[in-house]
């Protein structure tokens, strides 16, 4: 397989299996059909490529084997986490769910299937090695990759071209300066929103040789933290970078902002037109660029995506049926169909190679752009999985909220003071310092 990922991780894949995964090829439940429930995060209740691929299973292998998979919840990952914790307490967990590995800290891991018991070593080795790393908890493989993504820079090129001819989006400092220029040009609109500021700090501090997480907490005292904080804080205080809640794709639809940094899968929600306040629509061209970095730093980006978990049943036949479905949905043909509909990356080595050797076969033009851009990052970027540590989910949430809150207040303060005649540079310098100290205080 072509070299794609260089993930820094403190764990290695364990290839010594305590049991040989069972074969699911000859299983059949037609005499007593089995229904499996699943909660997932891919799409919406009415429009979801995941739902489509599940229906394909039900009409083919499921019908042949006597297995029906029912989607009983679709939500975002945070909501699913909360629902799973509640469901565990009431003994109403679904048979399968997609989630980030952090969920293992929230529910009893003894309730989860160890995929090593149902997949042979040969089957496990078909997955991209680095994608498996997040799924291991000790020697148990509790989460299997189903679709992975990374992050890119998305631009509404139609509106941007009216503002500037500058197309250098490789350096964060250049981008943040452009954001402030756009704020002036557009009479007070932000140009950019980063969907996950935690990811920005984690990757860019790493790219500079520092550590964002130390001793199970955020290290906000390093010189690398300040280096990464200052330029984005300046743009947020000025107004060029949005610190609003919600996803950038919502504001993309109305041209409230014209660029975003987020998951490749976000392409599903980025329309080819915008709707203005007067109700008029305008077709737009979307441009996609590699994840930016800082000059002189090692280009670094997140490798992200939920995995699939199985909930252990006292009925071993149900466990085997769960494994059969997961094997089917991650097989090369089905996985390629699923991920290319959503802008994700396939999880099997053979499927991964096939996609990037044949990008021209991707049917959706915008999705093709996504894969072409990822290919540009193929060899030069370090791809990092999110660190998993005690209370990591809560710490990430607190960081996002604290960062946005501090800078939102600073933007209001800056605007009010400058409008009242205060010196712009002195006010900005003061608010940069006080914002950094305020953020540090909230992170303690």
UniProtKB/TrEMBL annotation:
Gene3D superfamilies: Periplasmic binding protein-like II. Keywords: Signal, Transport. Residues 1-21 form the signal peptide. Pfam families: SBP_bac_8. InterPro entries: Bact_solute-bd_prot1, SBP. The keyword Transport applies. PANTHER family: ABC TRANSPORTER PERIPLASMIC-BINDING PROTEIN YCJN-RELATED (PTHR43649:SF34), ARABINOSE-BINDING PROTEIN-RELATED (PTHR43649). Belongs to the bacterial solute-binding protein 1 family. This is Extracellular solute-binding protein. It comes from Faecalicoccus pleomorphus. The lineage of its organism: Bacteria, Bacillati, Bacillota, Erysipelotrichia, Erysipelotrichales.
């Amino acid at each position: 397989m072509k070299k794609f990922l260089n993930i820094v991780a403190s764990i290695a894949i364990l290839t010594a299996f305590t049991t040989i995964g069972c074969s699911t090829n000859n299983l059949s439940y037609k005499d007593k059909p089995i229904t499996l429930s699943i909660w997932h995060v891919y799409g919406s209740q009415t429009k979801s490529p995941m739902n489509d691929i599940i229906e394909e299973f039900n009409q083919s292998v499921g019908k042949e084997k006597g297995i029906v998979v029912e989607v009983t919840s679709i939500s975002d990952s945070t909501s699913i986490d909360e629902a799973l914790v509640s469901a565990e307490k009431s003994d109403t967990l679904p048979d399968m769910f997609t989630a980030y590995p952090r969920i293992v800290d929230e529910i009893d891991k003894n309730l989860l299937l160890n995929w090593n018991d149902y997949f042979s070593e040969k089957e496990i080795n078909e997955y991209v090695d680095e994608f498996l790393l997040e799924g291991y908890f000790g020697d148990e493989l509790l989460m299997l990759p189903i679709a992975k993504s990374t992050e890119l820079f998305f631009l509404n090129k139609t509106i941007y071209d009216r503002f500037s001819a500058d197309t250098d989006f490789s350096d964060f400092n250049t981008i943040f300066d452009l954001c402030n220029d756009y704020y002036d040009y557009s009479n007070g609109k932000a140009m950019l929103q980063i969907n996950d500021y935690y990811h920005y700090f984690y990757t860019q501090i790493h790219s500079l040789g520092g550590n964002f997480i130390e001793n199970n907490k955020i290290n906000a005292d390093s010189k690398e933290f300040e280096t990464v904080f200052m330029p984005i804080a300046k743009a947020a205080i000025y107004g060029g970078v949005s610190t609003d809640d919600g996803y950038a794709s919502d504001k993309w639809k109305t041209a409230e902002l014209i660029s975003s940094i987020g998951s490749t899968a976000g392409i599903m929600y980025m329309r080819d037109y915008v709707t203005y306040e007067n109700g008029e629509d305008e077709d737009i061209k979307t441009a996609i660029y590699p994840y930016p970095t800082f000059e002189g730093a090692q280009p670094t980006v997140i490798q992200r995506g939920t995995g699939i978990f199985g909930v252990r049943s006292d009925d071993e036949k149900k466990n085997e049926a769960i494994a059969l479905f997961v094997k089917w949905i991650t097989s090369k043909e089905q996985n390629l169909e699923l991920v290319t509909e959503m802008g994700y990356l396939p999880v099997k080595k053979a499927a991964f190679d096939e996609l990037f050797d044949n990008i021209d076969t991707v049917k959706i033009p915008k999705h093709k752009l996504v894969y072409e851009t990822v290919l540009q990052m193929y060899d030069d970027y370090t791809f990092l999985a999110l660190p998993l540590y005690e209370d990591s989910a809560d710490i990430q949430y607190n960081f996002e909220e604290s960062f946005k809150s501090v800078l939102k207040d600073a933007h209001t303060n800056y605007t009010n003071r400058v409008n009242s005649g205060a010196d712009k540079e002195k006010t900005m310098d003061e608010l940069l310092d006080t914002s950094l100290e305020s953020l540090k205080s909230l992170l303690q």
